[in-house]
Write a structure and sequence with these properties.
Distance between the termini: 23 Å
Strand order of the largest sheet: 3-4-5-6-7-8-9-10
Number of helices: 12
Structural class: alpha/beta
Radius of gyration: 19 Å
Strand content: 5-15%
Helix content: 25-40%
Shape: globular
Number of strands: 10
Largest sheet: 8 strands, parallel, barrel
Length: 336
């Protein structure tokens, strides 16, 4: 496993991290989830990403149980705050001071730890003053409950303003967690240049486009039974990729992957890691062997000629519009 710095901080994280959105506490039984975490640890992954809203706090609890007994100093644990938790009361969501303080305390309890390495704003809150949010994050850092602050799916302008306030408050704002893959490149035009200037690293989710870039979804055929596309929770997120044009072009990537000596999923993960602003790519899994397979993308360097062939193969199906971040697009459920 190779390691990278998280933004311009001194924190090193595994360049492939393990996340449990849509799996732990919902799709995957606890014993299987713990087996996936064990496979991640055995493969050299030290960075684990979750959020309080995943399975309405159950995912945090499963991860906390799975990591119990591990040397805490050898792990980097990330969680997030914003989306609704609990019974859904008026203060059970957002980035208010109240919700942030109550959420970090609950997350630490679920995760069985005294602190998280990275605490992230799961989205930008348009209804709470940014000053209030950043001051609350500063309180969390100064209380020793989080070491670093990050965000998820913020625009370039939001990153710039948040970073300015973080500098004034003297807290380390070091990361953004966006969707990023061969098929979804909306961060490249604005978010990545702004992040490079600010010293913010990307911890990207869905590098295999919710499984589409594994090649298991075939044009003109129904999705495999039990796949993400047939799951009520995951199907809304993946359906944008389930067109015959996209699926045909993904199949056309197989010779490229073969030439590189990689599976399609390994090629997809290696591709996002070619971007030097990417600090880590988050993988999920419902079976331990998926973890073992995908971590083989760590350390892979793709030749420029191969990257060009990928672009030529995918052509016009790639989404690049920076306006299509999750923050600005219609949102049906939390997306990372």
């Amino acid at each position: 496993m190779d390691f990278r710095y998280l933004g311009n901080s001194g924190l090193k994280i595994s360049e492939i991290s393990y996340g449990n959105w849509l799996t732990h506490g919902s799709q995957v039984e606890n014993d299987q989830a713990k087996a996936c975490v064990r496979a991640a640890l055995e493969a050299g992954i030290t960075t684990f990403d979750t959020a309080d809203t995943y399975a309405n706090t159950k995912a945090e609890s499963v991860l906390g149980e799975a990591l119990e007994g591990e040397r805490r100093e050898s792990l980097e644990i990330f969680t997030k705050v914003y989306w609704p938790t609990g019974p859904g009361g008026p203060n059970d969501t957002g980035l208010s001071r109240k919700h942030i303080h109550e959420s970090i305390n609950a997350s630490l309890k679920h995760l069985k730890t005294e602190y998280v390495d990275l605490y992230q704003a799961h989205r930008y809150d348009t209804e709470t003053p940014l000053e209030e949010t950043m001051e609350a994050f500063a309180d969390v850092v100064r209380a020793g409950k989080a070491l670093y602050i990050g965000v998820s799916e913020w625009t370039a302008e939001q990153l710039q303003e948040g970073h300015r306030l973080a500098r004034e408050l003297r807290i380390p704002f070091v990361s953004n967690q966006p969707q990023y893959s061969m098929l979804w490149r909306v961060i490249e035009a604005e978010v990545v240049p702004a992040s490079e200037e600010l010293g913010i690293g990307q911890v990207v989710f869905s590098p295999i486009a919710q499984g589409v870039l594994t090649g298991k979804y075939l044009p003109g055929q129904q999705p495999p039974e039990g796949s993400r596309a047939t799951d009520a929770a995951g199907s809304n997120f993946i359906k944008r990729f389930l067109t015959d044009d996209v699926l045909t072009r993904v199949q056309d990537l197989k010779p490229v992957a073969d030439e590189a000596g990689l599976s399609l999923s390994q090629l997809a993960i290696a591709w996002v890691l070619q971007n030097q602003n990417v600090s880590s790519a988050i993988i999920g899994a419902s079976r331990p062997e998926q973890v073992t397979e995908n971590v083989k993308a760590s350390g892979v360097r793709l030749e420029e000629s191969l990257l060009k062939r990928i672009d030529e193969t995918l052509g016009g199906i790639v989404e690049r519009d920076p306006a299509k971040t999750a923050q600005n697009a219609p949102q049906t459920r939390p997306g990372s």
